[in-house]
C-alpha cells in the first residue's frame, strides 16, 4: 500500500468514526441516564437522512435540509418518548428493548410507505464537490467537510455536557438518578430533553452522511449495529468510551476493508472480541 492510500484510508476511518460518535454518543447517554437500550436510534438517524433529502429536494438548499432534519426528528422523538417510553420507565430493560425494536420497525415501514424502496441521493453544495490537496494527498472535499463538521459538533456536545448546568444534570443522572430527584429536579422532563437532543444529533449524522452514502431503507439497521458495537467497546453508559470506541471502530472498518479483503465485515467483531477479552466492561466503564 502506498502512502497516499494509507492516509486516505485513515481519513476515511476518522470520518466514519466521528459520524458513529454522533449516533453512539446519544445511544450511550440514553442508556446511562434512562436505562433504555434504544434500538430505534438507528431509525431516527435514517429518518434524519430522509427529512434532509425531502427538504433539499423541495428547496434546493442543502443547509436548510441539514437544519430541518434534527428539528423534525426531534419532534418525532418527543412523541415517541412521551407516549411510549415514559410509561415504561422503571420496567426491566427487556421491555424497553422490545418496545424500541417495534418502534424501529414502525419507522422503517412508514419510510417505505412514504418514500418507497428507492435509493435517493442529496446533491452536495458545489464548493464541497471535488477533492482537496492535503499535503500532497487528494481527499474528497465533502468527506473532509463531514470530518470537520462532526469534530465541531463533538466539541459542542462536550461543552454542553461539561460546561453547562444541563450537562451537570445529565452526568449526574448517568451516575445516580435518585440523587437528582432528591434535589427536586423533575427527572421526567430531563429524560424527555435528553431523548430529544440525542435523537437530533443522530438525525444530523444521517443528513450530513446522505450525500456521500445515499439514502436507503436499510441505512438505519447498518448504523445501529456499528453504534451498539461502539457502545459495548467503549463501555455501556460512558460518554468518553463512546468517543474512543467510535474512533477505533471507524478505523477497524476502513483498515479491515483494505487489509482483510474478504473478511472486512468481520473486522469490527474481531476488534470487539479482542478488546472485551482484556476489558470485559469496555475501555472506559461508566464507573471510571
From TrEMBL:
It comes from the Bacteria. One of its GO terms (cellular component) is plasma membrane. Keywords: Amino-acid transport, Cell membrane, Membrane, Transmembrane, Transmembrane helix, Transport. Belongs to the binding-protein-dependent transport system permease family. LivHM subfamily. It is found in: Cell membrane. This is Branched-chain amino acid ABC transporter permease. InterPro entries: ABC_transp_permease, BCAA_transport_permease. GO terms for molecular function: transmembrane transporter activity.
